[in-house]
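User: Fold this; tokens only.

Assistant: Input:
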Amino acid sequence: MRVCVVLTLALAALLAVASAPDEAVRKAARAFDAGEWANAQALYGLVTDRAPDDAGAQGRLLASSVMRSDTVAVISAVERALAAGVPLGVLADSLKVDLRMASGYGRYPGALHLIAGRLPFLRRPVTVRLLDYYTERRDGQMMVECARSLLAGLPDSPRYLSSLALGLLYCGDKPGAEAAWRRAIEADPADVGAIISLASLLGDSDEALGLLRRADSLSPSPAIKARIKAISDRR
């Protein structure tokens, strides 16, 4: 009898919130801010039922599910957000911000790996997000893994080649990094970032000086000119 009363009261509370959209949003936000993940998940479910195109609420629903380690709900939240027309990039950005606020940023890569694994059609765009995350963290091994996965479908991408190079450099593989940056420059001879990175790797060599001059001709910069002068002065 007591359990029935509790369930009845809980249902009445949810119905009351559902009848007042603004109140539902406020209650959901309070639950999220308080770290009451089950309540936040339930309340943001109501909010998104009423306003499925509310990207912020969809992001909070996803973040609450991640904080609860509710893998089924995580996938469901992604699918319902996409079905409502919320772009994946917007949803991922919201998740990133909300997990930071919830002191749960460490769960972000795990959530992305889960999404990529369960929803194969999202694997590539999610891997791009993972590459950005691991680059931010300077996790060379995972940068290499993500970059190679992306290069499998786009082998001449200067962006992913440069990411591969940087990851290899973080892993201590200088020859591998050099080879990857050379491939990036071959794919896009005007990629100033790759040219400067390769020049930095080559130190004070003649080739490094030539690369810096090439970069300065493509995108004139006082910083590049200063590096050219510094190398010239040391010779």
